[in-house]
Design goal:
Blueprint: H1 7-32, H2 47-50, E1 72-73, H3 76-90, E2 94-104, E3 107-117, E4 147-152, E5 159-165, H4 180-183, H5 188-199, H6 205-215, H7 223-258
Antiparallel strand pairs: 1-5, 2-3, 3-4, 4-5
Helix pairs in contact: 5-7
Protein name: 16711_t:CDS:1
Organism: Racocetra fulgida
Length: about 260
Amino acid sequence: MNPPQTSNSVEESNISLLRNDMQIYESEQFEKEPFLISLPYEPEAKVDEIFDIDSSEEENEESALKIYKNQTFQTWDDAETFLKKYTLEQGFSIRKRRTETCIEDGIEVMHKISWKCSCASKYKPKKVLNLEDQQNRRSKYTGCEWKINGNMLKSSLVVTFTTVENSHNHPMSSAPSTTIAYNRKLGEDMIEFVDFCVTHSITRAQNIGQLLRGKFPSRKIYKKNLYNAIQNAKIKLSFKNELDASNLLQHMYSLKTNDPR
């Protein structure tokens, strides 16, 4: 026969049962609601990582643009933009020498483009003159062999440089840097995107720079040019808002004038 339990032993037994119940409850809650791990705070990307370094702010900066065979671009416009930047930095000019198109689903599609140096041709006089009377004139045409062939295959849907002849037989421009500043400007499509961002209350240069990086991955973005584009977008937006307010005021005034009451 078990001895009778005292009041203290009964309380200890109840406390023990309560603790067991709490442990079971906590284990069930752990299975249903796992711990949330707090990740360390990561600051936003540095501005220098978003923008390209302005070449006008650094001396003796070498061109980062390289041209090579099998280089690819998303569109023909991207390829021509790249070639324009490259030739300006190198100090020479190019021309389209040949284009080939094909019809796909009733639409004319560019298939091939050939670019050559502007000095590629050789001077051929239209008429033969007396050598004694002919002046000693120099032509810019030197028969330069620099040439790029671009091709867009139906299977790839990208522009590829299939031929790259990257050699010249004439000196480059002595001061190509005079035209590089123009080349650093944002394109019209990028300016339209900046206007769109400012119109929708995105005005921080860092945020717009990140969006531009995602939308135009192959284009360079310089801080000074982006800041100018943002300020111009703000001015255009302010003028538009003032014009809208003026039009609204004129409309309300006309309603008041035409109101017979």
